[in-house]
Amino acid sequence: MQINFVSLLCLIAIAGLSPLNAQEISFEEYNPKSTLVVPGKEVKRAKYPFIDIHSHHFRMANQDLGELVKAMDSLNMSVMVNLSGGSGQHLKDIIANVNSNFPNRFIIFANVDFDGVGTEGWAEKAAKQLEEDHKSGARGLKIYKSLGLRYKDKQGKRLVVDDPRLDPIWAKCGELGIPVLIHSADPQSFWDPMDSGNERWLELKTRPRRKRTDTDPAPWEQIINEQHNVFKKHPGTKFINAHMGWFANNLGRLAQLMEEFPNMYVGIGAVIAELGRQPRNARSFFIKYQDRILFGKDAWNPSEFPTYFRVLETADEYFPYYKKYHAFWSMYGLDLPDEVLRKVYYKNALTLLKDADTSLFPEN
């Protein structure tokens, strides 16, 4: 008996064996494994001891630091900078815990409470509190992206990054000789139309609260320019621009900013995927600005550090990134020279951080 093609498809469908079933997956589920076979291997431990300039541990006041230090040791992390030190008594409690257990392994940054901007004497009180926090042991100031995105002043208006009422804070950091690690805005793609041309579409689809518009709360360019105005207005203060200022995908523009603001350093936290897709261009940038680039990871997840090490240290090709929703592309190594690696891993941070234990690092 002969069975025609249409009849065969019907029989297959009745049996539940439709060849179309294998294609019925969502875009979010599609995550193919590369069949490309190339030399290279995971780098689980950094070539040199390093300082993580960008980490967050909100419960360090009563945290068992022993387990954390073990994880740091496995990565070859000599010093962790906890940017979430808070202020006042909470900061003192964190520093007391650190000093009682591992005094040379952690550096704590303070934070400013922006509630009440616009009330009489707010700026003077905030600057005085920062000075007290510095006396308590804080060695830097961390500014969260909420400044420019969420904070409002006493009148209910958006608190802009370059609000002149905040000038005493930036000036105080310059006076004390402590750096300001500042995060402003988010990737520009969060403001772009959420359509088929947006390479962060999946991130916005799965995390819709990250989507922004020109009125929620302001255009991306405006917020970024506000940050740059602060750098320009306070040349005596050292600023560490978190996430490479969201210009890791446009290193030509970032190079212009590096020239314009000699007091601006950049941290590589959460933008390694941008660097790993342009290895030759990124390598040239790192070599040119080798004295002002700092290692930082941001979210504490030890399993993700090897991707950073591999991008910075090797010449490996086409290896995976750890978050699909961040990047639809694979990574390539920059193969940085050893002296550049040392600067990125620890030397540049040592020039900014007071009281860092230089004996933990070679050639110091």
Strand content: 5-15%
Main sheet attributes: strand count, strand direction, barrel closure: 5 strands, parallel
State the helicity in percent bands.
25-40%
Can you name the CATH architecture?
Answer: Alpha-Beta Barrel
In total, the number of strands is 8
End-to-end CA span: 86 Å
- Strand order in the largest sheet: 4-5-6-7-8
Order of helices and strands: HEHEHEHEHHEHHEHEHHEHH
Using only C-alpha atoms, the radius of gyration works out to: 24 Å
Q: And the CATH topology?
A: TIM Barrel
Number of DSSP helices?
13
Give a verbal description of the structure.
The chain is α/β, with parallel strands linked by helices and 364 residues long. The chain is 36% helix and 8% strand. The chain has one domain (44-360): Metal-dependent hydrolases (TIM Barrel). The chain has 13 helices and eight strands. α3 (88-101) runs parallel beside α4 (122-136) and α4 runs parallel beside α6 (167-176). Mean pLDDT is 94; it is low at 11-15.
